[in-house]
Amino acid sequence: MARPDELTFAPLGGVGEIGMNLSIYGLGNRQQRSFLAVDLGVSFGDEEHLPGIDLIMPDVRFLEKERNNLMGLVLTHAHEDHFGAIIDLWPKLGCKIYATQFSAALFEAKCAAERNPPKIPITVIPSGGRVDIGPFNVEFIPVSHSIPESHALAIKTDVGTVLHTGDWKIDPTPIIGQPTDERRLRELGDEGVLALVGDSTNAVRDGRSPSETEVAATIKKLVKAAKGRVAVTTFASNVARVRAVADAANAADREVVVVGRAMERVVQVARECGYLDASHKFRSADYYGHFPADKVLALCTGSQGEPRAALARIANDDHPQVTLNKGDTVIFSSRTIPGNEKAVGGIINGLVTQGVEVITDREHLVHVSGHPRRDELRDMISWVRPQLLIPVHGEALHLAEHAKLARAAGVPKVLTCRNGDLVKLGPGDPGIIGEVPSGRLYKDGTILEDSKSRAVVERRRMGFAGCAFVAIAMTQQGEMVDEPEVDLVGMPENNAAGELLDDIVFDVVVSTIEGLPRARRRDPDALGESVRRAVRAALNEQWGKKPICVVHVLTV
């Protein structure tokens, strides 16, 4: 008798971390499965640990191998950590993509800003709509979040229904878009939900997330009270916040000037999709200097301290069009993402040094999270009543707290997993039944590298201990043609005794060559390796660090 199909779940990113989201659902037996991918996002490089790496993406080699069985990719919403890897990774997959109007339009605008983007068609599904993708029936259920048209996905199969929440919160007054659809979620619970795969970002925070309407009221009050110029920075994708800033400017009789390409792009797409209307006027940065100080508001990119974004350039006083002076005000309508504290702190200090008043969410309600706190998580569980809950979208602490809350709320089965775990959802008892290949890809300039790539490993070592370059010219008889050349990059000039490190390394190179038997001196590889080891040992003795050492041996 044929075994019944299994429904499986495997996260390839976004579990044990915040960012780089990619989930896959499988339906079939262990020899043959159909797959559905949900989201394909990035996380951002950390200059300290990954110098020169702009973006980190999930490794999709498993899906490449299963390309013929990949039915499609569904997007919950258009934040970078959920759709930012598509342009780079879609050519490896080649599958159909499904999204609602705003996500599709923002993706199209993003592609238009690239030099040579691949042609990636997106099938637009209406909010609240359904689509059959292979053996999966997917329903887009509206939820509140910090970008328009965020959706939970009800994924229906013969084995059962999974609710993949995506990013969500409960906001009865969201400014833009529909509130989280409680009625439909309760109906799903009545129909029966096999598994809830849910957002854990704020599982450590008690209570409920405040509403966007409360933030809008605070921003309106602060802009009205400001005396000089005002700049507001927020996530460009938060159209509700952009609209709140425009409304606050209107109320204070100020013109809104948009500063930063990402902000310009979102404003354009939001207007095309009907989320901004004729009353929301936006000017380009060229107009900034034309208005009196009390009649202008700059809406800027750069809330996370990005060095090339508008606010960083303004704080460094090197923006070509926008300047701030003593008595002006900057409102950070955002919360700093962990890891960006140093960069944001540098910008705030730069602004304060210029005499600018800086307002953050520490003093006023100028930002709210787009993710559910603990009471909202309890509400979702009570509406949906899943047989199984799997926490995702969070670091280890967030996942553990969400799991603990779910058990206390009476969910029959709760399972935590890691990226790469293959989880059987049904039929029968759920559990981890294997692993699929997973990992990270680094975007280094225009090239994708895996996490073990030489460039990434060596650059990190070079950042810590520099690099020693040695060039040696030898005759075929094993004699030096001339003095060796030594170049030390990223190292101190002198040791603790004040002696030049260049001279010390030079002497070590010469003495090492002269101390080798003639046969080894005639072998370029053996000679190079001997010199490399001697130079690293000498620098470690003099400096306490072992740099990368590159030795070039030329035989003439």
Automatic annotation (TrEMBL):
SUPFAM superfamilies associated with the record: Metallo-hydrolase/oxidoreductase (SSF56281)
Keywords, sorted A to Z: Cytoplasm, Exonuclease, Hydrolase, Metal-binding, Nuclease, RNA-binding, Zinc
Entry superkingdom: Bacteria
One Pfam family hit: RNase_J_C
GO MF terms, alphabetically ordered: exonuclease activity; metal ion binding; RNA binding
Domain Metallo-beta-lactamase, first and last residues per copy: 21-219
Protein name, per record: Ribonuclease J
Organism this protein belongs to: Bradyrhizobium uaiense
Classification of source organism: Bacteria, Pseudomonadati, Pseudomonadota, Alphaproteobacteria, Hyphomicrobiales
